[in-house]
UniProtKB/TrEMBL annotation:
GO process annotations (BP): cell redox homeostasis; cellular response to oxidative stress
Keyword Disulfide bond on entry: yes
Cofactor: L-ascorbate
EC number(s) per entry: 1.11.1.24
Full protein name: thioredoxin-dependent peroxiredoxin
Domain of life: Bacteria
Species assigned in the record: Zarconia navalis LEGE 11467
InterPro entries given in the database record: AhpC/TSA, Oxoglu/Fe-dep_dioxygenase_dom, Peroxiredoxin_BCP/PrxQ, Pro_4_hyd_alph, Pro_4_hyd_alph_FE2OG_OXY, Thioredoxin-like_sf, Thioredoxin_domain
PANTHER family tied to this protein: AHPC_TSA FAMILY PROTEIN, THIOREDOXIN-DEPENDENT PEROXIDE REDUCTASE
Organism lineage: Bacteria, Bacillati, Cyanobacteriota, Cyanophyceae, Oscillatoriophycideae
Catalytic activity: a hydroperoxide + [thioredoxin]-dithiol = an alcohol + [thioredoxin]-disulfide + H2O
Length: 376
């Protein structure tokens, strides 16, 4: 098993492609979204090691069929060769042809060798993807038996399955799984522990935007991420895994972000944030989308995200997963009843909003260091 290739890691959306299948018809990956799948790569059907991989997935197919998991095989072979191989080995899953290595390079499973012969190094690898074409797991197929055993387990444990429900009300939110891995989430919690302070909120006073701390409205402590190495990593991940999803779901080009902050809602202090919107002042009007990413789901009680305008439903994404929603949507963080909830927070916007924000700040000349504390 491997957590990444040269170009992709768990949580990334897989590159889309169109390839010829064994019959010469064009297979378009995006047309087959909506079902989980295994996409596996090797160099050529004629190679003994590659044949072992093909047969292993042939034997795994009945379990995949039962779990409604599709199987797509990609090699460098031409359609007629793949067709003959499929007939010979009684393979019924989809065989695809990447004759110019373009898709294999996108997935990071092949690269030029360092010798002068012009050869290519091709890694045998498999990707387990969810219904929305995001990577759930990556497997190195060198230890084939071990990899197949892990895949057999993962198709039952990593793929979410819910019974269809009759929905009568739903908040206009986007849920994104596996944005951050669990180890990085723990790193962020440890970073919060190095330095944090009471978190306020913004109110409008005339044309000015004023910061307030009011413990009847919000109890949270924040750490603003300043470590450059961590910031670079966060920005890279958010651009790949969040901005692309915002574009697909809402047709909005997010290009900018506010400071990333790590927040703590502690039950010993009565952590909460009462119902509010994020874009109600001149200094916050640029906030087109908000992100709440849970860093330690399962380690606390209470602490749900709720959107009261859109029903009583409660949202608590898994660790490393995020909720994205419009800054104009009313929302609240419900009371923590046990433990301590850690979240990564930020706001996203585009170039138009950046210009509007700059013009407002030049006019209003807000001093965000001047925080007003409301006494209980």
């Amino acid at each position: 098993m491997s957590l990444s290739t040269r170009t992709l890691s768990i949580g990334d959306r897989i590159p889309l492609f169109g390839l010829l299948d064994r019959t010469g018809d064009r297979f378009i990956l995006s047309d087959n979204a909506g079902k989980p799948a295994i996409v596996f790569f090797y160099a050529q059907d004629e190679m003994p090691g590659c044949q072992e991989v093909a047969i292993a997935f042939r034997d795994l197919k009945p379990e995949c069929d039962e779990a409604n998991v599709q199987i797509y095989s990609i090699s460098l072979d031409r359609p007629e060769s793949r067709h003959a191989f499929g007939e010979q080995q009684d393979i019924s899953y989809t065989l695809l042809c990447d004759t110019n290595r373009a898709v294999s390079k996108l997935y990071g499973v092949c690269r030029p060798s360092d010798d002068e012969k012009g050869d290519w190094i091709y890694a045998r690898a498999a990707f387990l993807i969810d219904t929305n074409l995001r990577i759930l797991q990556i497997y190195h197929l060198g230890e084939l038996e071990t990899a197949i055993d892990r895949i057999r387990t993962d198709i039952h444990t990593l793929i979410r399955r819910e019974e269809p429900r009759h929905m009568t009300m739903q908040a206009p939110v986007l849920l994104i799984p596996n944005v951050l891995d669990k180890e990085f989430c723990q790193d962020l919690i440890r970073l919060w522990q190095t330095d944090n302070g009471d978190s306020g909120f913004m109110k409008r006073e005339g044309d000015r935007t004023v910061g307030y701390i009011d413990y009847t409205h919000k109890i949270r402590r924040d750490h603003f991420v300043g470590d450059r190495k961590i910031l670079r990593r966060l920005v890279s991940i958010v651009q790949r895994r969040v901005f692309t999803e915002i574009k697909r779901a809402f047709q909005f080009e997010a290009t900018r972000w506010e400071s990333f902050r790590i927040g703590s809602y502690d039950s010993s202090r009565g952590g909460f944030f009462r119902a509010h919107r994020d874009d109600t002042t001149g200094g916050t009007a640029h906030r087109r989308f908000a992100m709440t990413l849970n860093l330690n789901a399962g380690e606390y009680e209470g602490g749900f995200l709720r959107f009261p305008e859109h029903g009583p439903h409660l949202y608590k994404p898994d660790t490393g997963s995020a909720v994205i929603f419009s800054g104009s949507v009313m929302h609240e963080a419900t009371d923590i009843t046990a433990g301590e909830r850690f979240v990564l927070l930020s706001f996203f916007y585009g170039e138009k909003e950046a210009e509007q924000r700059k013009a407002y700040e030049e006019r209003a000349k807000n001093d965000y260091q001047d925080i007003i504390t409301v006494e209980k």
